[in-house]
Amino acid sequence: MDSIFAQIAKEGVKFAPGDEEIWRELYEPIYDHAQGITVISDQRYGPATRNLLDIYVPPSASPKPKSGRPVLFYVHGGGFISGDKAWSKNVYANIGHLFASQGIITVCVNHQFVPDVQYPGGAVDMQLAREWVFQNIGSAAFGSGDIDKVFLFGHSSGGAHIAMNLYAAGDKDRYDELSRRRSGDPAALWPPVAGVIYLDCPFWMDSRKPGRQYSLGHYYGSFQDEVWYPKSPLGLFEQLPESSPALNSQCLPTFLGTVEWEVPETSEATMRFFEAYRKKSQPPGSLPLMRVFRKHNHLSVVLSIGTADTSVTDALLEFIRETIGGRHGGLQTVQS
């Protein structure tokens, strides 16, 4: 790992188009996937071509609570324009295999890209996929998951789509749709969510950057701040009604992760969200759990999962186990 960390430090906070392949290729040879994991690929959760998900089922011999296994719902990044639940044979299978080896059913989700989808299409994809999990994950075929122990995990723009789904009640134009899906309460967290994990999430975006102008313009119809910002992850959060359970750290435990070598735009977004959360949170002043991962950059933070570097894995497992322990009596550690 030392050579990878040295390369990360050498490159610093730079992140240019094409760099993602450089980092993936560095990590590809060092994965050692757990044995005994069942992978069920390309389950359809909605009508769009990319509305597909994969399920990683823990070994049958792994501990299973009477109420069912916890579930991790992972959404990849890609700047609204690219990415895949199976970027390669190993990525993001590294996430599925690692967490499944710890007794956690892992669902890796694809979503639509611009220019083929417009707001709130990405958030609707998340809702449809969450509803699929709610309706199906309890099946023995998918590992007998517990619908009350579903953790949402988004990296980069995947986190933005999750946030725009969870904080959709910040958009009054969507109240009728949300009421239909959420038992009459637009702000309800439905289906149930045990906790949410954001890693390097662009809650806010710099509309001066040409690449952002492309994605913002196609997704929101304009890259003018007065148009897109109110419907962005941060804008929606700031407009949530005070009754929203998403503002309460006891109702929706929130893990906010970033890295030592983060691109400046995303660092700014993370801190803006942290401050917005502090201002609106219930109980007043309560905070999301925040972690800065040393030695990592924007991509290595997820590529490292399932390698000998367990810094990210350990922190996420701790968050999941402590959250479950506080509500449901704990999750047994599995030795792999």
UniProtKB/TrEMBL annotation:
The lineage of its organism: Eukaryota, Fungi, Dikarya, Ascomycota, Pezizomycotina. InterPro entries: AB_hydrolase_fold, BD-FAE-like_dom, GDXG_lipolytic_enzyme. This is BD-FAE-like domain-containing protein. Keywords: Hydrolase. Residues 53-165 form the BD-FAE-like domain. The keyword Hydrolase applies. It comes from Cyphellophora attinorum. Pfam families: BD-FAE. GO terms for molecular function: hydrolase activity. The keyword Manganese does not apply.
